[in-house]
């Protein structure tokens, strides 16, 4: 069975000691690991929480985004330089958390649009930044799993085909891909083709329902997703990424305007659902 993780963004985007009781309960429920958003400014907290998770037997992964002032595909070289510095900072924080993976859409600035289709030059610029960042990540033994987002959050990489193009251009063993069922549900024709497309570079998977609530209680075709992952012999993490308004600042930043499911309902029912689907499809 693949390892199963839970992203604590369902409670908070902030890395702090307030997460400790949440980690305790996730461990007690039966999770193998937890995922954190990198972005909080308190650098000491990353190592403190990373060590706490390790001591209670939880592995860690991370997710990360960049903004307009640190856009890897900016036509301004100085901005691309800031993007590289910011990604390196995030890799350092992932290392502090004892994480093996840093995933997310940090190939380009989140929710920043050019009002046109992506340019070849933008893929080249992004790949150049990611290639150098890949060298830095390799020193920390961390894999970067780049994420394709839906058209309302990103314009560079919406599909696994576009993401594969970017990663092949970067051409670095530590620059790989992740697959998110929520975004794929919007952008892909079907999960099977999308997963087969990204298979050679797939490093991480987010299990996310169509409404970002509890996996299995919406209309995502998880049977197809799990069957396709089993078909490519995927051995990485299956991490639930679900959202709530528990952290209003974070919720407002990503357009979460209502509650989808209670966080602990998501955690408890979602774990059982993934276990059942994994057993059903031999994953």
TrEMBL record:
Superkingdom per UniProt: Bacteria
UniProt xrefs under InterPro entries: Sugar_Epim/Isomerase, Xyl_isomerase-like_sf, Xyl_isomerase-like_TIM-brl
Any Pfam family the entry gives: AP_endonuc_2
Transmembrane segments: none
Domain Xylose isomerase-like TIM barrel, chain residue ranges per copy: 23-262
GO terms, molecular function: isomerase activity
Alphabetical UniProt keywords: Isomerase
Descriptive protein name: Isomerase
């Amino acid at each position: 069975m693949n390892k199963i993780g839970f992203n604590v963004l369902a409670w908070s985007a902030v890395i702090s000691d307030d997460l400790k009781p949440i980690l305790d309960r996730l461990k007690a429920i039966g999770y193998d690991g937890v995922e954190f958003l990198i972005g909080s400014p308190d650098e000491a907290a990353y190592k403190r929480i990373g060590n706490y998770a390790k001591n209670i037997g939880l592995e860690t992964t991370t997710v990360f985004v960049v903004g307009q002032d640190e856009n890897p595909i900016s036509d301004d070289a100085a901005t691309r330089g800031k993007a590289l510095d910011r990604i390196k900072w995030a890799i350092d924080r992932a290392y502090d958390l004892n994480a093996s993976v840093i995933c997310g859409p940090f190939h380009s600035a989140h929710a920043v649009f050019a009002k046109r289709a992506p340019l070849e030059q933008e893929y080249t610029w992004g790949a150049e930044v990611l290639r150098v960042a890949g060298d830095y990540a390799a020193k920390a033994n961390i894999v970067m799993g780049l994420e394709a987002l839906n058209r309302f959050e990103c314009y560079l990489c919406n599909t696994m085909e576009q993401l594969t193009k970017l990663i092949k251009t970067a051409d670095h063993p530590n620059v790989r891909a992740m697959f998110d069922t929520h975004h794929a549900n919007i952008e892909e024709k079907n999960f099977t083709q999308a997963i087969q497309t990204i298979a050679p570079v797939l490093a991480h998977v987010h299990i996310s329902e169509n409404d970002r609530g509890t996996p299995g209680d919406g209309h995502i075709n998880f049977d197809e997703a799990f069957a396709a992952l089993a078909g490519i012999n995927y051995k990485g993490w299956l991490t639930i990424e679900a959202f709530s308004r528990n952290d209003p600042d974070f919720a407002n930043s990503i357009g979460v305007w209502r509650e989808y499911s209670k966080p602990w309902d998501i955690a408890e029912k979602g774990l059982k659902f993934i276990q059942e689907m994994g057993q059903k499809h031999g994953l």
